Amino acid sequence: MFETSFEQSLICFLQTGNYAVTLSPAVPIERATLCSIERGLVRRIMQSLSVAIVAYNEADNIARTLASVAWANEINLVDSGSTDKTVEIAKSYGARIFVERWKGYGPGVNSALDKCTSEWILNLDADEWLSPELAQEIQALLSGQPSYNAYWVPRLNQVFGRWMRHGGLYPDCKLRLFRRGCARLQEDTEPHATPKTREKTGRLKNHMLHRQYPSVEYYIEHMQRYSSASIPLVLRKGRTSASIFAFVANTVVNPALTFIKNYFFRGGFLDGREGLIFHLNHSAYVNWKFAKAWEAHRTALSDQDAMQHVADRKEVNS
C-alpha cells in the first residue's frame, strides 16, 4: 500500500517538469519525462504483458492500435506482406515484426501468440484499440492477483461511421486477455473468430473499440473474402446444402431469419440507417457463405465423378 501511494505521489510531484530519478534497478538514472516515469512504474509493478497482432495493409489503423498498448512489455506483429506503411509504423512503436505468408486467420493469430514471451497475452486485431478506461483496468488487474486465467473483453464496433449498440453488435465480447498458453484459435476458424480456452473465465467492465467497417464498399469487399474463407469450415460441419430442403434452408431461410432476429428482436433498427444497411448486407453474407460452400461441394463431386469415369474407361480398355 505504501509503495503504491509513494509512486502516485512521485508522479504528481514530477508533473511540473523533468527530473533525474531512479525508478528501479531495471530503469537507469536518466532525465525522465512524466510519460517515461509512468511507463517505468507500470512495468515494474505489473505482471508482464505481450500484445499479439496480425496485419495486412493496416496503415490507416495500426498507429491508433499500437498507441493504446504502448505501455505493454512487448508487441508482436505478424505481417502477411503489407505493401503500405504498416510495418514502418509498427517499427516506430517498438513492435517486433514477423513477415509470414498468409495461412488463414486462425494460423496467423496462433503464430502471433506463439511469439509472445510474457506471462499474459492481449490479442488484438489491427483495427481494434483500447479505450483509456480499459487500459487502466487491465493494468490494475495485472498489478494484483487476477482471479481467472482468461478474460472476455466487451467490444464496441463502429460501422459506417456510427457506434453500434444494438442488433447483437454490443457488447460483442471477445476472449482477448489470457495467460500465455491458456487460449488458442482453431486452425480452420472463421475470420475474426475469438480464441478458445478450457479455463474458467472472467469479464472486464470497459470495452475496446473497433473500426469495423468504415464504408459500405469496404464492408462488401470484406464479406466477399470472409464468405470465401469460411467455405472449409462450413463443409467441415457437413452443411453442404446437398438436398433441396437444406439448400433453401441455408441460402434463403437462414439469411431471412438472421435479419429478422438482429434487426427487429435485437433492436438493430435503433441504430438508424446504418443499422438497416448493415443487417441487410449481413444477411446477404450468410447467403454467400452457404451458396459458395454448396458450389464448392458440387464442384468437388463433379471432379470425383469425372475422375471415376476416366478410371472406369481405363479399366474397360485394359
Q: How would you summarize the topology of this molecule?
A:
Elements: H1 2-13, E1 19-21, E2 30-32, H2 34-45, E3 49-55, H3 62-68, E4 74-79, H4 86-92, E5 96-99, H5 105-114, E6 120-125, E7 128-130, H6 132-142, E8 150-153, E9 155-159, E10 162-164, E11 174-179, E12 201-203, E13 208-213, H7 216-229, H8 231-236, H9 244-265, H10 272-317
Parallel strand pairs: 3-4, 3-6, 4-5, 8-12, 9-13
Antiparallel strand pairs: 1-2, 6-11, 7-13, 8-11, 9-10
Task: Summarize the structure in short.
The chain has 318 residues and is an alpha/beta fold. The chain has helices at 2-13, 34-45, 62-68, 86-92, 105-114, 132-142, 216-229, 231-236, 244-265, 272-317; strands at residues 19-21, 30-32, 49-55, 74-79, 96-99, 120-125, 128-130, 150-153, 155-159, 162-164, 174-179, 201-203, 208-213. The radius of gyration is 24 Å and the shape is globular.
Structure, explained:
The protein folds into 3 domains: 1-45, no CATH class; 47-212, Spore Coat Polysaccharide Biosynthesis Protein SpsA, Chain A (Alpha-Beta Complex); 216-317, no CATH class. The chain has 10 helices and 13 strands. The relative contact order is 0.10. The model is unreliable at 1-37 (pLDDT under 50). The strands form 3 sheets. A 7-stranded mixed sheet has the order 5-4-3-6-11-8-12, sandwiched between helices. The chain is globular. The chain is 46% helix and 19% strand.
